[in-house]
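TA notes, week 10

Several of you asked for a full example with nothing omitted. So below is the full record: structure tokens for the whole chain, then the designed sequence directly under it. When grading your own attempts, check the secondary structure regions first.
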């Protein structure tokens, strides 16, 4: 049974758009695809000297939210991936060195 990855985009008016990102045979491959969605968004909005808090705020406001599920599991998101935690950690790793360099 494959793992499905879908992305929820926020649109004005409170409704969301859902798109199929892909179907994957392993959970590891599905997680990698979900992470790539987040990484792509973060890189596309990254500005010089942006703080991790600013970057995460933009992801939280406008970023596509990837969900991983299987038809038979009847769950919205499988255990093993949390988009919120991943995005927060990536913002810290992307912007961390810039913040440290500026503080010196």
């Amino acid at each position: 049974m494959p793992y499905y990855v879908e992305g929820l985009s926020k649109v004005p008016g409170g409704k969301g758009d859902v798109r199929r990102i892909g179907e994957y045979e392993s959970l590891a491959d599905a997680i990698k695809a979900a992470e790539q969605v987040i990484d792509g968004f973060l890189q596309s909005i990254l500005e010089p000297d942006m703080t991790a808090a600013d970057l995460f705020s933009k992801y939280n406001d406008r970023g596509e939210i990837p969900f991983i599920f299987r038809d038979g599991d009847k769950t919205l998101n499988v255990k093993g991936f949390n988009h919120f935690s991943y995005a927060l950690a990536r913002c810290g790793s992307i912007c961390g060195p810039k913040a440290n360099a500026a503080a010196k």
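The two ends are 52 Å apart (CA to CA). Use that as a sanity check on your answer.
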